[in-house]
Amino acid sequence: MEMPSKQQGLIATIAVHGLALAMLFLLDIVSQVPEKPAGVTVNFGLIDEGMGETDPAPLEAARQVVPEAPVTESRVTPKVRDNAEEPAPRVLTQQTEDALAVKKQNEESIERERLEKEKREREEAERKKLEEERILREKQQAQVNAMKDRQKRSFGGNTGNSGALGEGVTGNAGNQGDPTGSVDASRRGQGGGSGSGISYSLEGRNVIGTLAKPEYNINDYGVVVVQITVNKDGIVVNAIPGAKGSTTMDSRLLEAARKAALTARFNKVTSPDAPAYQVGTIMYHFKLL
Fold this sequence. Notes:
Blueprint: H1 5-31, H2 58-65, H3 94-156, E1 192-195, E2 198-201, E3 222-231, E4 236-241, H4 251-262, E5 277-286
Antiparallel strand pairs: 1-2, 2-5, 3-4, 3-5
């Protein structure tokens, strides 16, 4: 079936117009291609420094000028735990084990130091105790030796004084005593007396009142002879316990005898020829309580 001429004309018109539009589109593309520029090339430079007589290619110059982009370190963001409330598991690392070992060593060192300190303190206390016991023994031995020495001199004379003129307590030359007396007598000559375990010897002097008994509270016994110095008024101005004839050197008994001797009083001396001081003795007999 042939198309009507009217339709054929319309189709032909459309085809012609489409062809014309295609040609116009091609011409527009061709006109946009740049042509090689004409004229003289001028080098304006790209940086403040340069060297050489030949202008490098634009691409090479741009490569020399444009700095390389810095390389940035990529950081990995740690993954957030889904459940924030759940505690992280405790992992026993080598560092934790070392810390525990160091702590244990410190505790052991402190304990050793404490034990060593206690040991040193015990040893020091023991040393002090032994030293005190040694000093006490030496003191007691010295008292015993002194007592033996006094007893030896009482029977064998004063061997420590080879140039002495005699022995006695009157202060005059000679050997005081009574040839017809008893060896058990507690006095050397006139001016003495005894009673209640106490006796004295002081030439030409008498006791005013009674001699005081020494006060002591130890269960010990012995004889203590006190050398006394008496002035003209009959006052004992000095007393030295442990004189010849003493049988004990106990410091407590010696002190008790000394205090008692200082309380003794004798008659006054009015003679102008009498010495200012006179030496005598008081003997105290201590008994067991």
